[in-house]
C-alpha cells in the first residue's frame, strides 16, 4: 500500500516556529516500511522521529536532513521488540516561513495485513502544527481507504497424460 502526501505546509500568513508534520499510521491495518521525504521549497535542516506502541515520547530516527534533497527512510531497519511497531512519524522542521510546502511529494510505503477483508475501511490521519509567539496553529487531514481484494480465478488443473 502506498500513500502520496500533498499540500503539507504552512498555509498561514505568518512564519511558524516548531513546525511539525505528524502522520498517525493506521496500525490495526498496516505497518510502515519506507518513506521518501520529498523536497521542500525552503532550504532547511530537519529531523524525523517516530513513536511506537511501547513509547510515550518520540525517538530520533534521522537528523540533519536537507529539505532540498529527497531522502529514503527505511523504517524496517529499526530494531524493535517482537510485539512493537511504529504508530507515528514526525518531521520536525523548526522555523518555517509563509508558504512553506513540498515541491516533490513525500510518500509512504506500508505492508497491509493479509487478513484484511474485501470492503474493509480504514483511515490514515495526518496533521501539521506550529507556533507563533506561543499561539498554536494546527491543521488536520485524513483519507479513507477501502480494501479491494479481487477474486483470483485459476485455470483448472488437468490430469497429466503420457510421459
Name of the level-1 CATH class? Mainly Beta
Count the E strands: 12
Total helical segments: 0
Using the alpha-carbon principal axes, give the shape: elongated
Order of helices and strands: EEEEEEEEEEEE
- By CATH, the topology is Jelly Rolls
What is the typical, i.e. mean, pLDDT? 93
Question: Segments where pLDDT lies below 50 for 5+ residues?
Answer: none
The CATH architecture category equals Sandwich
Number of domains: 1
Specify the structural class. mainly beta
What's the alpha carbon Rg, rounded to whole Å?
20 Å
Strand count, sense and barrel status of the largest sheet are:
6 strands, antiparallel
Kindly report how far apart the N and C termini lie: 45 Å
Q: What is the topology, as strand order, of the major beta sheet?
A: 6-5-8-2-11-12
Amount of beta strand: over 45%
Q: How helical, in percent, are the residues?
A: under 10%
